[in-house]
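dude i think i finally got it to work??
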Amino acid sequence: MSRSVKKGLYVDERVTKKISGKTPQETGAIKTWSRACTISPEMIGFTFLVHNGKDFVSVFVSEEMVGHKLGEFSPTRRFFRHGGKMQKEIEQAAKQREISSAKSK
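look at this
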C-alpha cells in the first residue's frame, strides 16, 4: 500500500543530509540502513550501500529508480536452488552440453 498523497514521499533526513550540496565523486559510497527511504531526483548518480540484514549491497541510483524505495534493490532473501537428485542430474547434463559445444567450435 502506498503512502498517502497528503503526507508526501518519505525521504530519510539523514540520507538527504549526507548528499546535500555534494557530488557523487566526493562522497563515494554512502552507507545506510534506511531501506524505506524513497529515491528522489537529487540522489541520481550516487552509490548507496543498503543494509539487507546481513551485509551491505551496493546500489547505484539511476533515473529509472526515482520513486522506488532503496530496499527494493537490496534483496533480503537469497534463492540458493531447488535441491535433490533430479536437479543435480539436470545441471550435470547442461554442463556436459556446454563442454561438448565448446569442443565442437
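The domain at 13-80 is CATH 3.30.860.10 (30s Ribosomal Protein S19; Chain A).
im so relieved honestly
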